[in-house]
């Protein structure tokens, strides 16, 4: 019985440590503007398509935070390279159709912005 209790404590400790590290993990916009190559004065855009993924970094390999739809508001701060085939970093201006909160920062493929 003593071994089971010790094993339970180890599992519980590991779970708490893992949970703590998740709570301290970087925000969804962890890549942030560090990946930007072109800065811009803040400009507001509307999403021009339905089904654009809003991501934690500039590329498909990054986790999707949610989906943007035509008319969702996005404030653009910077992008990865020229507008064609680039990713734009910014924040959501008001809660999106799919429930992404205003102020959430992330990346969207630039061709989906008007």
Automatic annotation (TrEMBL):
Residues 50-114 form the SH3b domain. The keyword tRNA-binding does not apply. Gene3D superfamilies: SH3 Domains (2.30.30.40). Residues 1-25 form the signal peptide. Keywords: Signal. The keyword Signal applies. Coiled coil: none annotated. Transmembrane segments: none annotated. This is SH3 domain-containing protein.
